[in-house]
User: What shape does this take?
Amino acid sequence: MRRISGARFQGRAKGEYVIIKLRLTRSISIVIPAYNEEKRLPATLVKLRDYLSRAKWDFAEVVVVDDGSRDATAKVAREAGVRVLENPGNRGKGYTVRHGMLEARGEWVLYSDADLSAPIEEVEKLWAATAKAGAQVAIGSRALDRSLVGVHQPRMRELVGRAFNVIMRMTTGLPFSDTQCGFKLFEGRAAKEIFGRQQLEGFGFDVEVLYIAQRLGYRSIEVPVRWDNVEGTKVSALNGARAFWDLAMVRWHQLAGRYR
Assistant: This one.
């Protein structure tokens, strides 16, 4: 039986009570999925280094997962002295994040987009929220407090994102206002169970891992974070459209018993 933060609650999957005790150790892995990021990655790694030099983490590591980049992404990361994992070719963001989460060594694991649209300091909000709520997953949200969004995405992308969220809620029953923000914190042991069951390799994986967390009885909370859109997104219109299809695939994998 898992233990959750000394509190009791009813698991949604089978109606059973799950008890989890979290060790709130200041131990973190920061996973950065990267595809052709040689230009943006150096500045990101400097910001991460500066933050970790100030923050009081007992253990910290930065893990860059190179998704088959055609540029010098892996070389840049190695020269910066961070841990580098390489995918067997270009597999997609979902595969890349799963690779990093399963290899992470910290007792807590954050995955963040390579552009740091959400400043790395915002992880402290997620950390504090997990401690307060006894949660194992905290997801950064742009929707809970839109005043924290400094630079918005293009209007059409925001509208498509809101439509996606409506359909996501109808399809999965998840309560979140923003599942697609690339800034999420997982308790390490929970991450291994959740991402070990992940099936999707594309951009719909965010919904899938939150759905799996719910099925396993883990508590997930949504936390408003500062966020600024950074140009240079790797999300094409086709990839965005596939995320809608991925919602149906989440239900299919659940019915097939792959999240047990």
Summary: The two ends are 14 Å apart (CA to CA). The chain has one domain: 26-255.
